[in-house]
Amino acid sequence: MPKPRIDIPTAPKELINLASAIKEQHDTLAKSSPLTLLEWEKTGPQIDEAAKVQEQIDKLGKQIEKLIQRRNNFVDPLGDFVRSSKDILSGVYRAEMRKLGDFGFEVDDTPKAKKSKPDPAAK
Prior knowledge:
The longest helix has 53 residues, at 40-92. It is built from two helices and no strands. α1 packs antiparallel against α2. 1% of the residues are buried. It has helices at 12-29, 40-92. The chain has a domain at 12-94. With 123 residues, the protein is mostly helical.
């Protein structure tokens, strides 16, 4: 039978979860744990603090998802508003389009780059 591989997670959340599971089993086994050789006075509190921080990150992540969803509900109507504003201002200031910059639009009056035609010999 081949020797099994034991993978150690590289992602912070999974690494913290594994460290917490190791600590939990060590605490369960108490003095009979083979890990008593390790520096538990130092590492134990680090594992606990890392788990608390990860829990906060997870909660904030959920809040961020909700905020992004809420924000996205405004995007389509605001896009329509901005396009309508541009259309009206383009009509009002058609002789001086740079005026749209006063309303926050970026006005690029450099000539458009010509599209290069594909070289038929390149096929």
